[in-house]
User: Fold this.
Amino acid sequence: MAGSELLGKEEIKELMDVLETGVLMRYGHDKERKGVYKVRRFEEAFCRYLGVKYALGVTSGSAALKVALTALDVGPGDEVIVPPFTFIATYEAVLETGAIPIVGDIDDSLNLDPDSIEKRLTPHTKAVIPVHMCGAPSRIDRIVEIAKKHSLKVLEDNAQSAGGSFRGKKLGTFGSMGILSFDYYKTMTTGEGGMVVTDSKELYDRSDWYHDHGHDHNPNVTRAMEGRFILGFNFRMNELQGALGLAQLGKLDTIIAEQRKNKAAVRKALSGVPGIRFRNIPDADGDTATFIGFNLPSAAITKKFQKAMSENGVDLIYFYENFWHYLPNWEHFIAKCTACSAKYPFADPSYKGKAGYGRELYPKAEAILSRTLFMAIPVKMAGARIEQIAAAAQKASKSI
Assistant:
């Protein structure tokens, strides 16, 4: 459960600072808040941590995707290339802008295959969203290179790999924009919450205005008296989330270090399983170690091993049959059941493309994920648990 395992006195202290002022909203009430601006400080601290110029706290990682896509001017008639292995919010955010998600494929990193981008290009392609899944980086250098070649915007979905990096550069900082998620299951948590990051003042401003009903946040006038450049909506992060984020960000490197240590121990415990191959991570030094992924020779063996491990007290995740993280299992998406009864934007006449989502379009994902299992890596892991995993793996190996 990562950051939620370490909720403690630091978070309580930051939260009490807010509660003592009685001001829970990030904007306005300057006199009453007595200098306490937690969201602002959280954003500033995250900029320093990632090495970016601008960061904007929002209500969730899903909201961050929508805000960023809107800032990038993605909209009706556009296509956005996304991997088939991701949380459904990546697709939902594209639809929320009126654009259409186009499925790419994955490679052995289990992230977007750079080579699949050019295969999915059409005259309608506007952007690509690489997702750094389950704690590990994609081949983001190659993805950005291909995107630049074809004048595509790159929005990094780094919801699951906060603090990760690729060749020394933090994930989320390679593309035009990046996003992070801080929900309860993420590497660091604010309960709910997310962040939009960029080095572009123009993209930051558009995100900032959009996430707060078009307020331009002019510091020289009182709130509600500012100017407006665009219409927006409400995706504001509140001060309680900002307070939690400050405390959790201070623990992020410790969280990752502990997970890496525990992942190494789990990998050693599993290494004797016949035919096991661990996930290829393009830069192991940038892995946040939130999960360990591995595959076995066949889907049948994989499911048999999962069952045997479960019977011995070790649960593994089979994302191939997961309802939320693998495209062909989203029956409501496949049926184009958007919240609009007219099935917008799929039925939008301004869209001139033809999107398909059949399994034949992502053969690598089918071949790899059907043989792949994951185990979540906690921050706190007792030696007895490692021993249990090793013993379970030894027993399960005999059944395959």
Observations:
- The first strand starts at residue 54 and ends at 58.
